[in-house]
Amino acid sequence: MPELVFFSGTMDCGKSTLALQIEHNRSARGLQGMIFTRDDRAGEGKLSSRLGLVTDAVEAAEGFDFYAYLVAHLSKGGRCDYVIADEAQFLAPGQIDQLARVVDDLDLDVFAFGITTDFRSKLFPGSQRLVELADRVEVLQVEALCWCGARATHNARTRGGEMVVEGAQVVVGDVNQSEDEIGYEVLCRRHHRRRMTAAVARAAALSPDVLPIDA
């Protein structure tokens, strides 16, 4: 039976790489997929991995209708054996409903990839709806690591190396931005709670005024 599968994890855990691997494996067996993305770091209409892999995709902007798009594509004689939707956390709940309808009414597997929570540890609406509707939720096993070496479980937004706790939910950035830009960093829960990014930890380690007390 076709399924709606949600592959989730923190930033830097290989979601887009897995999406590209699924596309490669299935296309190598003669299947044809439709790839969608939203606000990818490589630009509009691209699905990219931090390993340097990139492929073309359909940009699913605000108001985009997945079900209508695929029905139109199939009605014109196009082929689609499966669907990949990357950066699914940016999608509206209604768009997730459309992906579920693609599975149920068009009998297509849909593989959605996304971050579960934002920089405030709040669920993205799209991710929340995926958790509610998906046939399976797969937490990726490639563990991203906090600067301390522990398993990273939270996404932090940074500016000047310091953690930002207010602002719009969606601001496109990356984990490799320079410290004077808005960027992102993955942290363990302890250091996310303490707002201790790698830059803050380095500054604390170099300060002679910091007492070696773990509060």
UniProtKB/TrEMBL annotation:
MF GO annotations: thymidine kinase activity
Pfam families membership: TK
Catalytic activity field: thymidine + ATP = dTMP + ADP + H(+)
Enzyme Commission number(s) of this protein: 2.7.1.21
Keyword list, A-Z: ATP-binding, DNA synthesis, Kinase, Nucleotide-binding, Transferase
InterPro entries: P-loop_NTPase (IPR027417), Thymidine_kinase (IPR001267)
Family listed: Belongs to the thymidine kinase family.
PANTHER family found in the cross-reference section: THYMIDINE KINASE, THYMIDINE KINASE, CYTOSOLIC
Name the UniProt record assigns to this protein: Thymidine kinase
Organism listed in the record: Streptomyces noboritoensis
Lineage: Bacteria, Bacillati, Actinomycetota, Actinomycetes, Kitasatosporales
